[in-house]
Amino acid sequence: MNFPILSATLLAPILGALLITALPRKQEQLIRYAAAVSTLASLVLSFIIFLTYDRALSGMQFSESIPWVKDLGVSYALGVDGISIPLLLLTNLIGFSAVYASWHTEERVKEFFVLLLLLISGVMGTFLATDLFIFFLFYEVVVIPIYLLVIIFGSSKRVTKEYAGMKLTIYLLIGSAFLLVGLIALFIKGQALLGFPTMDIATLSRADFPLTFQIFVYSLMAFGFGTLLSMFPFHAWSPDGYAGAPTAVSMIHAGVLKKIGGYGLIRIGLFLLPAGARYVAPLIAVLALGNVVYAGLICMTQKDLKYIVGYSSVSHMGYVLLGIASVNLISINGAVMMMFAHGVMAALFFAMIGNLYHQSHTRNVFDFGGLAHQMPRLAVGFMLAGLASLGLPGTVNFIGEFTIFVGAFRQYQVLTILAISGIVITAVYILRTLGGILFGPRRPEWDHLKDLQGVDLIPLLILGGAILIVGILPFTVMDLIDSGVGQLISQISPGQIGGIF
Amino acid sequence: MNLNEIAFYVISGLTIAAALGVVLSRNIVHSALALIVTFLGVAMTFFELDAGFLGLVQILVYAGAISVLIIFAIMLVMHPDPSRTNLTTPSRDTNFWGGLLAWIIIAAIGIALGKNPWPIPQTIPTDTDRVGAIANLLLGNYVVAFEAAAVLLLLAVAGAIILAKGVEEG
Amino acid sequence: MIGLNHYLFLATLLFGIGIYGVFAKRNAVAILMSIEIMLNAVNINFVAINRFIQPADTVGQLFAIFVIVVAAAEVSVGLALIISIYRQRKSVNLDDFNLMKW
Amino acid sequence: MDNILQFAWMIPVLPFLAFALIGLLLHRWPKLAAASSIGAIGISLVLSILVAIRVFSGDPGQVFEMSRRWLEMPGLKVDMGILIDPLTVVMLMVVTTVALLVQIYSLGYMDKDPGLASYFSYQSVFAGSMLGLVAANNFGQIFVFWELVGMCSYLLIGFWFGKPSARDAAIKAFITNRIGDFGFLLGILFLMILFGTLNYGELASKIAGHQNLTALLPIAVLLFFGPMGKSAQFPLHVWLPDAMEGPTPVSALIHAATMVAAGVYLIARAFFIFSQVPQAMLLIAGVGGFTALFAASIALVQNDIKRILAYSTLSQLGYMVMAMGVGAMTAGMFHLMTHAFFKSLLFLAAGSVIHALHEEQDIWRMGGLSQKMPFTTWTFVIGALALAGIPPLAGFWSKDEILLGAYAGGFTGLYILGSLVAFMTAFYMFRLIFTAFFGPNTGGHHAHESSPVMTVPLVILAGFSIGAGFVGSPLMGNAFGHFINAPGSAHHQANFIIMTVSSLLAIAGIFLAWLIYQKQAIKAEELKQRWSVAYNILYHKYYIDEFYAWIRKVLVDAAAALMEWVDLKIVNGTVNSLAYLTGFWGRSLRYTVNGQVQTYALWVVLGVALLLITALWTVFTVLV
Amino acid sequence: MGYQLLAPEIFTAVLGMLVLMLGLLLPTQCEKLVGYITVAGIAAVLIVVILGFNQEAIFFQGVYQIDRYGSFFRILFLTAALLIFLMSSRYTDWFGQRQDEWFSFMVFATLGMMIMVAAGDLITVYVGLELMTISFYILSAYLLNDGLSAEAGLKYLIIGALSSAVLLFGMSLVYASSGTTIFTDIYRALNHSHYQPALVAGIVMLIAGLCFKISAVPFHMWTPDIYQGAPTPVTAYLSVASKAAGFAVLVRIFLISFPDTQFDWHGVLAVLAALTIIIGNLTALPQTNVKRMLAYSSIAQAGYILVGLVAANAYGLKGLLFYAMLYVFSNVGAFTVTTMVEVENGSTEIEAFQGLSRRAPMPAAVMTICMLSLAGIPPLAGFAGKFYLFAGAIQADYLWLAFIGLLMSMISVYYYLNVAKAMYIGVNSSDKSLAIPAAAKVALWVCLLMTLFLGIYPGPLVSLTEMAIRLFKVG
Lengths: 501, 170, 102, 624, 475
Fold this sequence. Notes:
The complex is a heteropentamer. By secondary structure, chain A is mainly alpha-helical. Chain A has 22 helices and two strands. Chain E contains 19 helices and two strands. In chain E, a hairpin with a 4-residue loop joins strand 1 and strand 2. In chain E, helix 3 (68-87) packs across helix 18 and helix 12 runs antiparallel to helix 13 (314-345). The relative contact order of chain E is 0.10.
């Protein structure tokens, strides 16, 4: 067995968290360094994975598998393919940035970084797991650190942070309850069909689940994962949650956590239950339109920066859902790309908002104006995130959106046309917001704000760099995604799916 | 109607009447006395059922020891006015529902018993040593229960002392 | 002929009276007494069943003996508890004992 | 020399490199930034010239194409590539030339600006994107750069972001363009679905082999949305006048010469699609013609020097689009080229004036500039004459081609309309000139001539404005049309009558302006009084902005507010109600545990009773 | 015949009596010594049981049997007892001179449970059950100067005696229908019979009587009051061990004696389980006293565990055993922290927990983790347990039960997190750090590590449960 690089990536933040637990409370700087080093280790490792993954071979690679619970057929099985690597990379890009975005946390530094590192590990785990049980384990692990981070370090504006945290937690957990019922049903049915218990996703995919069962379980998953993906009308947790959360949590939550929903729908829903996916897809597509247009319109009325980004992330998830609901290679490629794209964009946005809020203690758009005078670098960050958000070519978001549109257009013409109108809506609210806070006359009350400097720049560089590099050279990531999605789709037995591909 | 039946109905009637006396009397002392009668009635029933040893135990333990214990307790905690010592509960709901449920349970169990196809009663082997059989079981198959019961009694004594003694002041 | 059911009905009636007693009274001692009636009813059951169904052995009677023993222990502890609580509250009325609720 | 085409890809890439250089390293040293930007575009210009020589010395039909894969998966392929043919080369030449001159000019114009480095970085991105756009070999790529030039336009309009008006104008420009792009993107998607490729060449051959062309109508109409936004055709024209909030060199480069012409270029590029669909061509011609007239009429009464030029640009763009619509693709492209030169000249000259007058843009507060700023004045006049179509300046030849195309194509109405616009153009341009340059010094300003770094580009552009028309004139055997044409693009013999009529109309316009504003034979104020309703409508630009604002308020903002209400009250309300209901049940159940032990016993007995009843009911009903 | 297998029971009984006597003999200064002896004794018994886990024997024609199933639960009780002795090391000071007896009653209660789970017939079960219950009556009322405690004891006694009577009546009817009290014989006697209303009545009364012990709805009403009023370590023991014992007996009786009677007790239990889960969780939502909240939560937990019996298949039973075991660690962990807080603040109201994370980070973390384990959040033990339980339920076609169970378990997170919220963001006037005795610290660490370990790597415990349930021939 080679060096277990996936385990190492996964465990690095956990080790960091343990180390921090052992450090004395007063050594705040040391704690920050420990967090930074452990996330950096994960980042570097995931880069190595990204670079050394054999794209020609495709399929699951770097696999590790240790039998875990025999009678459930659970094994501690990790593996990555073209779908998970971009998301793994995304997690670590954001995780590493998040550490720096919260560098100025003064209160209870120890707790903060322990929880943050656990959160990062948990998210990573879902993308690495190739076993349903392990996947779900990590899926829910993340909820509680988030709750604590929100209530301890969050902020109360329109809603209190306690309310926001509780809403987010309970909402997502209820979604996951439905999901869990689906997963257990899948496991039991799989056991009945295959004759032995297994939680291995690839093995389960060999079972021919009956159509009604597929529809039932996929619907449960669509609800469970859809809630996490803030599918309309189950998105209510998302804006409030992001508004209440501290910067790092907003970054990770909007950046990667939400994507677990999309990832799950593809990796588990579509892969194991293709016929069910196909059956439920039109409904999801309609709801996706709800996301895009409805949430987009709401963004126009929001005044709190975090609410704007919160609703906009709901809106953008509509594209991902549309991609997933269109169930073809192109659209799913686009959905995965869009998840990556939205991840870096939203994280950058939240990092910038966090920095601004940390200094000014307000997030109301109307309180600001002309900040580009005082804070040109911050303005660059905002502009980059904003332009990415509205899907400008040259940013990675364009690649995602364009690909989704091409894929979805084959499946649902009218819906896609309506969804594309979202690019206009997005432009309206993003530009209004950017214009409102960055441009306009200089306001002397903000003269005391310091521009990004030192470690503050790291999120901007890392995330902005990702936005631009992948945006300009999309094939670096898209080829990978294509190999993953292509492999996944080719493994779905053609009898199950009909002529959809 | 033979003697057995007459005895059964008389004893049953007495037992039930005494039991009703326990739950209906407004004076706790009367209740306690009625309870003793109930215990004795049950003991009589045991005799009817050819369980002489058990009837004796019943008289000794229940009608003797437990009743005395109860009466002592009553003395310790009694209200000055005897006719107000054993009032019905102030909650009419509880009273009503309690009565209703008691009837429902009696009816339900009664129906179940009445409809149950019991096996043909077997005749009792008359020559067996029933007390000896009990003793054999007690110290044979049921020795664990027996020992546990012993521990239980020890425990109950110790516990009762501690609880009844209360906290030493200071 | 007096059969099993006669005894079982007797026991059932006593059991029901005991149940009613638990609800009808407010004095804790009276309630303990009602419960004793219920236990006695059960004993009648055991002995009668032993007599009519399985006369060959004495397991039913044995059960009844254990019930009596346990009941004795229970009553002693119960009365001690009543005395203990009476010392604090100067009352044995169950409806006074509601410091904890909801 | 043959290998020069192999290096053509560097033309768009170099400015991007300059941008990266500035963004990463040089942003603290504005002069170095400017130098790298200008250097990059200079090299691009040189390369373009070499490429042009190579292309124009060869066969007109030859096409050089190279591409790298960019975004590829089964069923979707977008390459980044270059397509070198005469059409591209003309655009490359125009863009690099004007961009270089504007950037040099900017050195003087933006001299004191603290954001010089970012200015030049934006300029570089713009140049790169624009060159990428014109060099694209497929619709995917053109869309990418299409959006990018839009972004540059947004950034440069809002360059002086401290001004709220600049900020708002930038946003307006972007959003209006987005609406156009929405349709454009849909058109591209339709193409993708229908033909499975976005490459021009492959599309052309597939369409040629395609029997049923009805599906092309929606595609053509949707594609035309793009030009409507980018080239500011009615009804998406509203952003262009506001875009004048940007620095004047930007207006010259982006909002007069190059970016706004991208729409026209796109129509030319996709002519193989449009020309298949007569209905779409009619629509294009109609929209273009209407815009030309509509914008010219507004220009008649505006007071802001840049806005007059902006409406003039609108009008001229309408002209070009109309040319495309009537099938005179060659004429349209020709006008695009000449217009690029003289309109950027006009803007730069106007910029010189504005710079000298410290950001004064009202023509009525200028006056008497001809003595103080001779270079500026005379180059401006040359530009204006070219625009008005006075022979033999560049505008004359190209405008004439268009009128000829309309006339010969049987679009008599459009021809008359075009002629009318020509008259109006001459009038409003010389209204401006007589007022601002030759009238009395009403503003009491102390202007002086700009520095050579600004005037030299003016002179060079004036040279182009005079001479560029000859490449397409019958005098040179219509060399332009020899290279730039397309199947379905009509070409007609020069018509002397049309030439004469249009020239006379232009002169008449100038004369009328002279009468009113120089000679003051006719009192402008009286006219204003007499036609006050018309004047007001024109002055308020037909109230289109107000109408759009009203739509935004009544439809969009109201919808948004409604959605927010739904979200707060219904979606969140449901969630909160469910949570409340759960808690309510909890609180209600809580009170069943009332502290009374007898109640507890009651529940126990109730449970027993219910269990007994259920069990016995089962036994007696189900089992027996 | 291997009577040495009864050594744990005998030793425990001797230990109980020894402690009782030592309390009388030793001078009052030596109270700690008694505690040490008890802990050592229980630990020794635990080791003996663990070492003898694989030995099985049937005594007295099936009246008493030592099997892996019983041993599993004996390990559970002894572990729980040990943990509770460790965690109560400061709390017992409140008992004054009655500490020794406290230890002995706890040991006797343990003995009762051990007898219950090993009993193979109704009589022995009954006596063991009463031994345990009566011990708990006394223990609940053990804080003599505290009104709540005496009230709890009396309430418990009344309801307990009432349901004992119901249980006994049920036993008598079962005895009537089969003519025997030994589980295996009951099964044999009933095998060919059908249509026995008396038996059905007996079965449901057995359900009622045992459901009282496990505090399933509607026999749950006593739980909050008793849990709140009883001394906190007793509450902890009551909640984990007494409940587990109830389940052990319930499972043994129903799966040995009535695995396939004509009456579908699975359905009845399913309804009870669902009601228990719903009502327990909902009522816990508005609670402000942590002990009382944990009481309601323990009602809900009983509902979850009951699901295992409803399913009555391998996954369900493994889940049941697994859950009962993890419940020991998670619940005792939570109660340990509650005890610490109570000793320090004299209150278990949620206000007493405010700002705990600053005063005592480690206990606050343990409390949070243990409660989340109860809620079934991965990767904590509760999740693995729930997974088995609901896998069993779904396999047995009780999909609706799985829905209700998982949904309510997510709602339960609300009240658990309310405590976490108080601990993490609440503000307490005193910033004095919480003093935690070493023994309690050990208990905390054990609970924490086991809760994590069982969640992350449930394999070993699952194989134990697998061995334990071989007794019941289920698929």
